Amino acid sequence: MSVQILAVGEVMLELAPAGESNGKKLLALGYAGDTYNTAVYLARLGVPTAYFSRLGDDPYSAEVLDLMRKEGLDTSSIETVPGRTPGLYLIANQPNGERSFSFWRGQSPAREMFATQASTALLEERLLQIPYAYLSGVTLGILADEARVSLLRMLANFRARGGKVVFDNNYRPQLWRDREHARSAMAGALAVADVALLTDDDESRLWGSGEEADILDRCLSAGVAEVVIKRGPAPVVVATKAEDKGYSDRQEVAVPPVDQVVDTTAAGDSFNAGYLAARFAGESTVAAAAFGSLCAGVVIQHRGAIVARDVFMTAVGGRVK
Known about the structure:
Blueprint: E1 5-8, E2 12-21, E3 24-32, H1 34-44, E4 49-56, H2 59-70, E5 74-81, E6 88-93, E7 99-104, H3 117-127, E8 132-136, H4 137-141, H5 145-160, E9 164-168, H6 179-190, E10 195-199, H7 200-207, H8 212-222, E11 226-231, E12 234-243, E13 246-253, H9 267-280, H10 285-299, H11 309-316
Parallel strand pairs: 1-4, 1-8, 2-6, 4-5, 8-9, 9-10, 10-11
Antiparallel strand pairs: 2-3, 6-7, 11-12, 12-13
Helix pairs in contact: 1-9, 3-5, 9-10, 10-11
């Protein structure tokens, strides 16, 4: 089966809280990264998905590659860099399930994507073979300026040939020199995006306003055809059919309440997977947003970004197309 979507980004080692023993905190090792999380959930939902990144030649890189293949991801576009190791991050959770992260990613080979002619050529070749490409604000943030410009140029050419670009804003201030630096890159990504999957909190921190009208104005100016605004427990906003005066088709989709939020890590990533899987299956934006919320609702009831496959599939399997 041919690949439907290629996700571009970074997969890291994840250390998540796992209780205590003899007065010491226990941490569970996993593998995660925003576009990687979405790719895994997309594959579970039956969407043929490939991942583009760089890893090292260490045991952890080998393990994550093995996990990707077991999840059904196409890994043929992942470069192996001798002598290097993936980045690492640590999750800290609040009682309400909200989380903060500490990162150690300076040595990550994914930060050097598109810094070489070989890496650029590999993506250019792969973009000739797939209909959809997926990236995030983190994808942009880990790259050097010249590599970022190269990526956006390739995506613009991809769109000119009829390809579709999906963008998730996912703003992480620590990845950028300053807010203006991030704004310039994010605006460049919106300008090549067909579908924007945005979180209002990230939009507020980046642009100074997470209000729906301001978000839609920014997307309209950039020419984005399909916009999704994730607003935590508040209804999701979906807007399509962009016209000169705004989006003519705007809907709100309720988010089902969750009894116990354990960890909000990958809530947006899993929502994105559910939304895209439903859209690829021919569902409306409203139905897709409802399914995305269902997927996110499952994930936030468990620790870590990637929920055990059987748990996830039992909860959403009946809805998979």
